[in-house]
């Protein structure tokens, strides 16, 4: 590629994109080429945001906060892409229906509002001791709405066709659910990093730099000692971790299995998330950042979700199946989660959790699973036919 070609590239992109820049209502006919570019853009934005966020949580267990830290800058690039795509969907109406557009716009808006609120929070209160703070919650909620809108847009608008086309549609759907799972589970990394932060202190080699420990100690109003480290590392009740992972996290996998409708969907998404965490673990540790306890037990949870669907397969889509599957599945998944946590705690590392909370987790998961069965069935009945007709009305043409 010559220098002249590189110089012409922006002009060619503009020449291609400008004809599409027309005002339109959500749900308008979307050329196939434009649809692919929009959703490739979303995948790129989410990849950058996830990488930046993963690095950010590791960063904050070692260094004092820095607004212009590299993880923030990486996340910002993804956010800029997301904002640009949001504007395109909102203005042109391409690639989304009305609900998907609203979810994306509201999610992006909440996320952007949360950024200055988080900065103000840090200016007033200093270091955030926990990932579970209100300003952080707004960031997660905004991202969740954004991902939900993009998932709906792809669900309705992705082309249907031969096996290759269907495989691509399924893979992207699974990837979007994996992004949603990562966003939802993200605050629980507080405990996954925290338990190893305490272990590093006990070894006499704390991960956190002295300036961070002194800052946290001043904020907690006590000396730099083990009790302060515990409060800094694990500032939320131990019960929160198994309930969040075993109910909220598993519910995402249940919905993914219901919506995508393919065998081993939950296992694949859980394994992909765990594989991502396992891949970035040595990368961050190699750069001198703290290690985290990877939630390997997620794979067991996803596996037992899929096994529950397989076991209830002979019941079809009957009402009995939609009642038996959640009860059986919740029992299997809860056993897998708590058994996996116990095994992981023994062999590797896991956040502390009350072992007697399994009944609460199982009951909540069963109730949430039943609700998911009802809501996803209503969703598919209402919108399932639309995706057969390409709800976002993707055209076979490549010109506006």
Automatic annotation (TrEMBL):
It comes from the Bacteria. The chain crosses the membrane at residues 37-61, 73-92, 99-117, 137-158, 170-188, 239-256, 263-284, 290-311, 323-343, 358-376. Keywords: Membrane, Transmembrane, Transmembrane helix. This is DUF2029 domain-containing protein. It comes from Microtetraspora glauca.
